[in-house]
Write a structure and sequence with these properties.
The complex is a heterodimer of chains A (355) and B (314). Chain A has one domain: Elongation Factor Tu (Ef-tu), domain 3 (Beta Barrel), CATH 2.40.30. Chain A is built from six helices and 13 strands. In chain A, a hairpin with a 4-residue loop joins β10 and β11. With 355 residues, chain A is of the alpha+beta class. By secondary structure, chain B is α+β, with helices and mostly antiparallel strands. Chain B has two domains: 182 residues, no CATH class; 57 residues, no CATH class. A five-stranded antiparallel sheet of chain B has the order 4-3-2-1-5, with no helix packed on it. The chains are: A alpha+beta (355), B alpha+beta (314). Chains A and B meet through β1 and β2 of A and α3 of B. Chain A: It comes from Tetranychus urticae.
Chain lengths: 355, 314
């Protein structure tokens, strides 16, 4: 029964939008307009929506003090691809590239305001927490419904393609319209990544659960089958949760404890260690601080809080983890210790004598 | 009947070697055993009419003739053949990293079939340096993932080492003999007689003039008797194996057998979108080659001086 409730509240792959949410897409996608009207709309879009109307005030730009109890906002990113990098030991690692494209804070709620909005199932999870809504990748407002575009009026932004709700503490509240950059995180930080995995459709038992299968010899039918299911539960039938064929992939998964190796500040790209970020290339994923206790942020090395604000000093284009070998640097060369030199000489002498 | 005009843009790894003779932008697939045996070169797939007599003329080439050889010289700069893995921002970032690495090491042009010597800084070797010499069997991968394998026989034992091209532990890559072979994939040397893949480790480099065309070695390899470790005719990227000497007891059609050339139905070869997705169009290729040619011009004099200094030392 426990598996049943788990699937009900944390759904594996189907998530229907709530009925009280606003309809997203417009009914008529291609309105028939004359050229003058089209031009008027484009000009209006460029003048009013290309940059945020309400620039957040300077009093909020000052950095606050970070405490270990406080929670920060996350980021929405696109998975661009995978390519290798090398450490200073000469070890080869794979990194995934996550682009943080056009992220803004759209709305924030206090802990009192958010407590009224929380649905019944999440009442313990979000107890005493506030909430921030974040959007990524602004788009033309003519594609969306009037209600959906109205959500972004307060922030003074065009409508976004993707929205998320992030639970935060009251310290980390931000005014609507603040931009979020990839330098919200730093190289060396540990991070959780959430996303939808690759979809494979209805798959057999060999691909889905890595069963061995049988021998494809001549006339046998024992090739890619699961075999006997078994008489479990006092011969009532197979056990609950038996591995069987079915739908594979497109599940909501988190990768916990991933290290950031490099950040490109110009293109807002985060390089993360490991190729196993869920989803195909081009899929959205969400980045947060870790919940793993050993890898959490500490007071000795506090992060930019509530976010990174671009100051007067420009950052360099690439920020690296100290272990990573930069491609600008010279080739890696290992130096022999005195012990190793002695061993090599004595080994050569012994080889001469044996000959 | 006038058939539709088809322009096929070919990725470097899937191209047979004889395609270099003509421009890359034209459309062809090698037609059976006709062309090369009779000395005609390649024939067009869908029509055999020459270019002058075509009712529908072929479109103009976007890539100029100077940059045509860049596709074969720098094959790793093309993005991957899988359209799912392509991304414009990723390729730009990747190319910047590759060019920054090329500032520190002189990666020469080489092809499958040329003999190389690679020195690597290795923490487990004596003196922390190891050097290996061998024939380049295979090149694969794109971008920073690109790598090449060297093969040699030392003390009657075949050794193959695969190097990453942009690995920062590589100290130098020497071209000892620059030439091409008839095939783009020489992994069948594993099952050939050992004389074809034995080279002395202290081999001296051949001198050649700058700007001279790269010679093709038309040698045909004598294979060991069957059975082999892998059926080399099936696995090949090419449509035919040119470098294997014909054997007794093997029919002729067996040499031409290939999986990649086969279509599921008659109309699949006319699917333009399928070809567009699996190949890289010239519009996407041209900015890459322009960027590389600018890079070559800026660094050519520095590299010349470094090479001359190396030669004087010897």
């Amino acid at each position: 029964m426990s598996a049943f409730f788990k699937n009900l509240y944390n759904k594996r792959r189907t998530t229907h939008p709530f009925r009280w949410w606003i309809k997203r897409k417009a009914d008529s996608f291609k309105p028939e307009l004359t050229k003058d009207n089209q031009k008027f709309i484009d000009d209006y879009f460029q003048t009013n929506f290309s940059t945020p109307l309400i620039v957040p005030d300077l009093f909020n730009k000052s950095q606050k003090v970070w405490t270990p109890e406080s929670r920060r906002v996350g980021l929405i990113a696109r998975k661009i691809g995978v390519y290798p990098m090398w450490l200073k030991d000469g070890q080869r690692i794979l990194t995934t590239l996550l682009q943080v494209n056009d992220n803004h804070v759209i709305k924030c709620y206090n802990s009192e305001q958010f407590a009224n909005q929380v649905i019944h199932q999440d009442r313990y999870r979000y107890q005493g927490l506030a909430c921030a809504i974040i959007g990524a990748e602004s788009d033309h407002f003519i594609k969306y419904s009037a209600g959906y575009a109205g959500l972004f009026v307060e922030a003074g932004l065009p409508p976004k393609k993707k929205l998320t709700k992030v639970p935060i503490t009251d310290d980390a509240l931000l005014p609507p319209g603040t931009p979020l950059y990839a330098t919200h995180f730093r190289p060396g930080d540990w991070v959780d990544i959430f996303g939808l995995t690759i979809e494979h459709g209805f798959q057999g038992v060999v691909k889905r659960w890595d069963f061995a299968g049988g021998h494809p010899i001549n006339t046998t039918k024992w090739k890619r089958r699961p075999g006997a299911i078994g008489h479990g539960r006092r011969a009532g039938g197979p056990h609950k949760g038996k591995k069987m064929p079915g739908h594979m992939g497109r599940e909501r998964k988190t990768l916990n404890g991933v290290e950031i190796m490099r950040i490109n500040t110009k293109e807002n790209v985060i390089y993360v260690r490991g190729p196993a970020v869920p989803g195909e290339t081009g899929n959205f994923c969400y980045i947060f601080d870790t919940k793993i206790i050993e890898k959490k942020l500490t007071e000795k090395n506090p992060p930019p809080f509530p976010t990174y604000f671009p100051g007067d000093n420009e950052l360099p284009v690439d920020l690296y983890h100290p272990d990573v070998h930069r491609f600008e640097d010279e080739t890696i060369q290992f130096v022999e210790t005195e012990k190793e030199q002695q061993q090599r000489r004595t080994g050569a002498k012994i080889a001469k004598i044996r000959k | 009947m006038v058939l539709p005009r088809v322009i096929k843009l070919i990725h470097s790894y899937n191209v047979p070697l004889y395609c270099q003779l003509r421009s890359a932008s034209r459309s062809w697939i090698y037609k059976g055993g006709k062309g090369i045996d009779k000395g005609k070169g390649f024939s067009f797939t869908y029509t055999s009419t020459p270019d002058d007599k075509r009712q529908i003329p072929l479109s103009q080439k976007l890539i100029p003739e100077e940059l045509e050889s860049m596709r074969l010289k720098y094959p790793e700069f093309l993005p991957s053949t899988k359209p799912e893995h392509r991304n414009k921002i990723k390729t730009v970032l990747e190319h910047n990293d590759m060019l920054q690495r090329r500032n520190n090491i002189d990666i020469p042009e080489f092809y499958v079939g040329s003999i190389l010597a690679v020195t690597v800084s290795d923490p487990n070797a004596a003196g922390k340096i190891s050097r290996f010499l061998g024939i380049c069997i295979f090149r694969e991968g794109t971008g920073l993932n690109s790598c090449f394998t060297l093969r040699n026989i030392v003390d009657r034992e075949g050794i193959e080492i695969r190097y990453d091209l942009y690995n920062p532990t590589i100290r130098s890559i020497e071209v000892i003999k620059l030439e091409k072979r008839l095939d783009q994939d020489l992994r069948y040397l594993r099952d050939a007689e050992p004389q074809y893949s034995t080279f002395p480790l202290d081999m001296e480099p051949e001198l050649r003039k700058e700007g001279a065309p790269v010679p093709v070695n038309p040698i045909k390899v004598k294979m060991l008797p069957l059975p082999w470790s892998i059926d080399w005719f099936k696995i090949r990227y090419q449509h035919q194996t040119y470098g294997i000497e014909k054997m007794r007891g093997v029919w002729e059609y067996y040499y031409k057998r290939s999986v990649h050339n086969r279509h599921h139905n008659e109309y699949e070869q006319f699917d333009l979108m399928k070809e567009y997705r699996s190949h890289i169009p010239e519009d996407a290729q041209l900015p890459i080659w322009n960027k590389l040619s600018d890079y070559e011009k800026s660094t050519s004099e520095i590299k010349k001086k470094a090479r001359r200094a190396k030669m004087i030392k010897r």
